[in-house]
Queue: 2 jobs
Job 1
Amino acid sequence: MIRKWLNASRQFGFDPVKFINACRGIPRFTRDLSLWRRMTGATNPFSVHPVLADFRESAGSADGHYFWQDLIAARWVHQTNPQHHLDVGSRVDGFVAHLLTFRAVTLLDVRPVRTPVPGLSFTQGNAQEELGHLEGSFDSVSSLHAIEHFGLGRYGDPLQIDGHLKGLRNIANCVAPGGTLYVSFPIGKPEVHFNAQRVLDPVWPLEVLTDFSLEEFVVIPWRGEPTYGLSPSQVDLSRVGQAGLYRFVRPPRPTEV
């Protein structure tokens, strides 16, 4: 309930956690400002730009779903060294940016990308619909923390009860024989948190992608280090805040073996 209240407050531009931390920073800021003025003789009030919450911050966030999935999946792609990579719906300022340091990327998203980015080819589209012009065209395809949103309307996409199912299947169809598919989403006891996200059973993609083989699976908690070596069927469904990161491979055509 606390998390839901925090998320609802942030939708309206109010972050209670940041507000509290800013209030706690006022005494430190006041002391530092007084000392700075004595050191420099500065008196212009318009030269003061208070930043109150950073006193207690760390040197960056090296934790959570997005940090670990972006790091691990980018390493996987780097090791595989594909010729053509397609991403569907992942964060441009996260995972996609990681890939662009060493690989050109084709991006498909229902939302626009308004700023040209070197190495990024963008197509606006809805993965809940068939992607005929992209099918079988990429030896590497990714969709990280996106599929759970399909069909809920959060990003302007049409409402579809099975949008996540159609989306996963359509994205997988873009993988060429012998190619690799990387996907991630929240896992646990299946639930729909309208219109934010779905929580999906960790075994679910194996039941959908019967023409793929699962090569690697990582469980990523909201806080703490990832867990390697589990199978999707071994995940504790009672734990909340988990994400699953999957690396699937589509078998090559028989003539390519």
Job 2
Amino acid sequence: MVFWDTSALVKAYTVEPGTPTVQAALQALVRRSSVTPFVALETLTVLSKLLRSGTFSAADYNRARLEFHRDYPRRFVRLGVRRHVRSHALSLAEKHRKAGVGALDILHLACALDVKARAHPRPAVFAVADGPLRRIATLEGVRTFDPEAQSVSDLMRALR
């Protein structure tokens, strides 16, 4: 199972480094990719920010938003954020307070750790393109996948 952080997932709906890799990974991993409603919310807000900043035209924004809404129920296992995961996120925020990562990043990490625990003994991977978050995830023992620096083949090997 792959848990997607927004930093990696948004690349499926934009044109930036890692976009082709994320799109290919999502094609290969239908129903083996997971997100929470918080990842979905953050993805939509990132797309909105791209529109407001002028990076996206209105047509680009509408296309990306519609693609995401089409994909969300079909491509992803949608996970709830259970109480123990929220509690773990609080402890992770304290533990990694000097890392400079945001609240949603810490929550996404707690969710990735939960996916890892539930998938055991099968492997789980946290897809993340945010450097500080990836470093913390590695410290916490989560396998990571950076679509800006790795290939789909690397991801598939990590899932074996």
